[in-house]
Amino acid sequence: MLEAQNIVFSYPHAAPLYDGFSLAVAPGERVALQAPSGFGKTTLCRLLAGYEEPQSGRVLVDGEPLPQRGACPVQLVGQHPELAVDPRMRMRDTLAEAGEVPARMLDALGIETRWLARYPHELSGGELQRFCIARALAVAPRYLIADEISTMLDAVTQARLWRFLLAEAADAGMGLVFVSHSPALVQRIATRVIELG
């Protein structure tokens, strides 16, 4: 179980985004977070994955705090892949940070072998996002947090990506928390929708 318990979070000199917020996501669930812009969906994603620390409350996986080192059982893929990779590293080295990435995963995500030798600036945003997804899945997370991960992809690639992610989640019993502004995608994928605002 992925749990946020009584989370309180605010940015400096701003009203609290969350004040006593709680959420529980079971293995295998696919939970969509919905709210108007500015309601802190991305911040909540970062809190759930340990990228931000709440002022009070806690985030737990199976009753334990997120680990301070090693592979985190909660992986976040954000909407800006260019911010999630080291611009000085070739893509093969970026993937190597996650350990062994199965060839079938690269193939399923449409990652071409020739891209592995490239630097991030030599790839499109959509191509870069596929590497970020592969890197997150390679560590076999218990939960994947997906924050607007397919907005930069064309419709065919979006459909291929989500089919792959849903199959991976089903095979591994992985929980999925996602943000999307596409009502059709939410309706098709989510087992539960949480309205934040």
Would you tell me the structural class of the helices and strands? alpha/beta
Assembly state (oligomeric): single chain
Number of helices: 6
How many E strands?
A: 9
Secondary-structure element order, N to C: EEEHEEEHHHEHEHE
Q: Separation of termini?
A: 24 Å
| Strand fraction | 15-25%
Rounded to an integer in angstroms, the radius of gyration calculated over CA atoms is 16 Å
Strand order of the largest sheet: 6-7-8-3-9
List the topology elements:
Layout lengths: L1 E8 L8 E8 L4 E5 L6 H8 L7 E6 L2 E2 L8 E4 L13 H6 L6 H6 L16 H14 L4 E5 L7 H18 L2 E5 L3 H7 L2 E4 L2
Parallel strand pairs: 3-8, 3-9, 6-7, 7-8
Antiparallel strand pairs: 1-2, 1-4, 4-5
What does this structure look like?
The chain has helices at residues 41-48, 91-96, 103-108, 125-138, 155-172, 183-189, and strands at residues 2-9, 18-25, 30-34, 56-61, 64-65, 74-77, 143-147, 175-179, 192-195. It has 197 residues and is α/β, with parallel strands linked by helices. The strands form 2 sheets. The chain has a 5-stranded parallel beta sheet with strand order 6-7-8-3-9, with helices on both faces. It has a 4-stranded antiparallel beta sheet with strand order 2-1-4-5, with no helix packed on it. α5 links the parallel β7 (143-147) and β8.
Based on the model shown, name its key terms.
four-stranded antiparallel sheet, 9 strands, globular, alpha/beta, 197 residues, five-stranded parallel sheet
Write a concise synopsis of the structure shown:
With about 200 residues, the protein is an alpha/beta fold. It has helices at about 40-50, 90-95, 105-110, 125-140, 155-170, 185-190, and strands at about 1-10, 20-25, 30-35, 55-60, 65, 75, 145, 175-180, 190-195. α5 links the parallel β7 (about 145) and β8 (about 175-180).
